[in-house]
Specification:
This is Multidrug-efflux transporter 2 regulator. One of its GO terms (molecular function) is DNA-binding transcription factor activity. It comes from Anaerostipes caccae (strain DSM 14662 / CCUG 47493 / JCM 13470 / NCIMB 13811 / L1-92). It contains eight helices and eleven strands. The protein is of the alpha+beta class. The chain has two domains: 71 residues, Orthogonal Bundle (Multidrug-efflux Transporter Regulator, Chain: A, Domain 2); 148 residues, Multidrug-efflux Transporter 1 Regulator Bmrr, Chain A (Alpha-Beta Barrel), CATH 3.20.80.10. β2 and β3 form a beta hairpin. The longest helix has 39 residues.
Length: 270
């Protein structure tokens, strides 16, 4: 039995596929995809069987193939070219999946930071347990350098796409004990454990965690409070203090800036 074809106008065919009919007119004009029939009224009609071909074209277009590339392939379809296209596009899709996963990770991290901001109080200090983390670090003394010099050095070490993960600063606890609060040792940004770049492992364990709202000028005074807190709880500060901005992407004034300070602490009795 012969299959009976269904003739569809441009408007009908476009509606079935969720397209603007101008798109079909354009494809017809450039010779990429044209109606099968021309009626006595000079109207042009699509066969319903052309749906498969159109969706195939749309799939290739979604794979970022240009109109020229699609047209060349459809004019001379063959197995070798299709396999070549498939291999190329699978690699591109893999890259896009990794990019989207990283974007998702960043959004989840930023959301978690903001949720934390809504739960803490200014100058609050806690004792918490942390798992180990991995950082990309730039170690240098930048107390006397201006901001342009600092960012010039950052660009030599990190890709700009790493900036969105957030950049923090670190300072040794020895300097904190000496009240050299402005003498930072460098900058860091979060990194995956299997990063190809040189990474630093921030050890897990007990940390003193403090939250300060306001301009950085108030941090030295807050560090004094953290030192007093450690002494009160018989804890020894060790390693580095890690400063991270939690809400810099949602504020318009430095007075609203929330800095999280993390310092590993050991029990003096151990």
């Amino acid at each position: 039995m012969n299959r009976r074809s269904i003739k569809l106008t441009t408007s009908q065919f476009a509606k079935i596929h969720g397209l603007n009919k101008r798109t079909l007119h354009y494809y017809d004009t450039i010779g990429l995809f044209s109606p099968h029939y021309k009626g006595d009224n000079n109207y042009r009609y699509y066969d319903d069987s052309q749906s498969i071909q159109l969706e195939y074209i749309r799939m290739l277009k979604e794979l970022n193939m240009s109109i020229k590339e699609i047209k060349e392939y459809l004019n001379h379809p063959n197995q070798a070219d299709f396999l070549r296209i498939a291999d190329t596009k699978l690699k591109e899709i893999g890259c896009e999946i990794r990019r989207l996963k990283k974007s998702r990770q960043i959004l989840l991290m930023k959301k978690k930071q903001l949720e934390l901001c809504s739960q803490i109080k200014n100058r609050e200090i806690r004792i918490i347990e942390c798992e180990e983390e991995y950082h990309q670090r730039i170690s240098f003394a930048f107390g006397d350098e201006d901001i342009e010099q600092i960012y010039a050095q950052i660009k030599n070490f990190w890709d700009t796409k790493d900036f969105i993960m957030g950049i923090g600063s670190f300072i040794s606890t020895e300097k904190i004990k000496q009240r050299k609060f402005d003498s930072y040792d460098g900058l860091f940004t979060p990194a995956p454990k299997n990063s190809s770049n040189d990474i630093f492992k921030k050890p897990g364990g007990t940390y003193i965690c403090g939250f300060f709202t306001g301009d950085w000028d108030g941090l030295p005074e807050f560090y004094e409070e953290i030192i007093a807190f450690a002494e009160k709880h018989h804890l020894t500060l060790t390693g580095y203090a890690y400063e991270t901005g939690l809400n810099d992407f949602v504020i318009s004034s430095a007075d609203e800036y929330i800095t999280q300070i993390m310092i590993q602490a050991e029990n003096e009795e151990e």
